[in-house]
Amino acid sequence: MDNTVLSLDFGGTKLAAGLVHVGSGAVVAAARCPTPADAPAGYAAMLEMARDLLAQSAEPVQTVGVSFGGPVEVDGRTVRRSMHVPGWEAMPLAERMEADLALPCAIANDADAAALAEQRYGAGRAVTHLLYLTVSTGIGGGIIIDGKIHRGAHAWAGEIGHQVLDPNGPPCDCGRNGCLEALASGRAVAHAAQAALAHAGTADSRLRRHAPITAQDVTAAAAAGDPAAQAVWETAMTWLGIGIANAANILNPARVIIGGGLTNAGSLLFDPVRQTVARRTLDPDLEIVPAALGEHVGLLAGAAIAPAEMV
User: Fold this and answer.
1) Could you tell me which residues come within 8 angstroms of residue 223 by beta carbon, excluding any fewer than 6 positions away?
2) Overall fold of domain 127-292
3) What is 4-117+295-310's CATH superfamily?
4) What's this model's pTM, rounded to 2 decimal places?
5) Which of 44, 126, 195, 215 has the maximum number of C-beta atoms within 10 A of its C-beta?
6) pLDDT category, 310, cuts 50, 70, 90?
């Protein structure tokens, strides 16, 4: 019998809950709602969905796994803070869930949990050492070593988006300058495109049709041959490749898996990133592949980090 776990995903724009067969990764039931404006309302909404799913389950559920959109302490039980919603600071989330649901619970940062989910159910199967990146509005990451999440001494491992590549570069939300996130994320691409329109020679750029400009606008214009968009995109993808190569030279993963909204660009992203990494990494056998789990990654992330001894 494929054991069933309750998987919870606290995201910045939505909350999702599901019942997942932990062996196969099959999502057998799911619910979602928009993320409320503060932690108490978010916790209450998630708890309601969780209880509804448990009441509906035709199979016993023995454990809960939580993917959380923010830093989590190394104990795998306490939220450090949310990246999107106030009120989560130092929240003993696993303890609260255990009290309210009467089930053992484990939590992980969403990028760490997604890395483990891809290793178990997606593009990282049969690979025990991998690096996962989500490249979207920001850039997050997770490290898998010997098939387990590597959190580091104080749970800051995997923050590949906050390696400083250009000390004189644009400001990052973390307070530093020139982080990979400030150079190659969706937000960074949009900001760079807007700045590019102030330069001579961009009067006919397709980007002028959009206000505000998004990263999706830039990829579409670049694919259509717009020179300004192509220059912005190529610069960002070069930085992304440099950041990945730096991390790969330290960690030596067998595979780098890239997910997130910017990967919808397909070969427009993967081709230049692979070329840059190939020029800069020491391991000629390093693979760079797209993530495989798509919209289910949050629920499968929760399932992947559910307490192993109970499933």
Assistant:
1) 265, 268
2) Nucleotidyltransferase; domain 5 (3.30.420)
3) ATPase, nucleotide binding domain (3.30.420.40)
4) 0.93
5) 215
6) very low
